[in-house]
């Protein structure tokens, strides 16, 4: 999930796995898979970096999970 700020200053949290496209109009417009959109204060580069960091955290959590009581 990404925590971003709309142009009016309110916070919005969006599911980054549902992002279809990001447009620069010159504001950053995030278009979701259901074709809803959000116009946010963050730049395209900041949004992309947040997506990368989110997915890195997900992968990192997956690496730390181990099965310690596995029996066949």
Q: How is this structure best summarized?
A:
The protein has 72 residues and is of the alpha+beta class. It contains 1 helix and 5 strands; from the N terminus they run βββββα.
Give a quick set of tags describing it.
single chain; 72 residues; three-stranded antiparallel beta sheet; two-stranded antiparallel sheet; 1 helix; 29% helix; 32% strand
Verbal overview:
With 72 residues, the chain is of the alpha+beta class. It has 1 helix and 5 strands. It has one helix at 44-64, and strands at residues 2-5, 11-14, 19-24, 28-32, 37-40. The strands form 2 sheets. A 3-stranded antiparallel sheet has the order 3-4-5, with no helix packed on it. β3 and β4 (28-32) form a beta hairpin. The mean pLDDT is 88.
Largest sheet geometry: 3 strands, antiparallel
Q: In oligomeric terms, what are we looking at?
A: single chain
Helical element count? Answer: 1
What's the count of strands? 5
Order of helices and strands: EEEEEH
Overall pLDDT score: 88
Using only C-alpha atoms, the radius of gyration works out to 16 Å
Ranges with pLDDT <50 over ≥5 residues? none
Strand content: 25-35%
Structural class: alpha+beta
Large-scale geometry: elongated
End-to-end gap: 37 Å
Helix proportion: 25-40%
In order across it, which strands form the biggest sheet? 3-4-5
């Amino acid at each position: 999930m990404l925590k971003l700020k709309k142009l009016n200053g309110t916070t919005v949290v969006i599911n980054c796995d549902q992002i279809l496209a990001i447009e620069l109009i010159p504001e950053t417009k995030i278009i979701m898979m259901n074709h809803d959109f959000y116009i946010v204060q963050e730049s395209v580069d900041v949004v992309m970096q947040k997506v990368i960091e989110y997915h890195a955290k997900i992968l990192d959590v997956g690496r730390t999970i181990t099965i310690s009581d596995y029996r066949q």
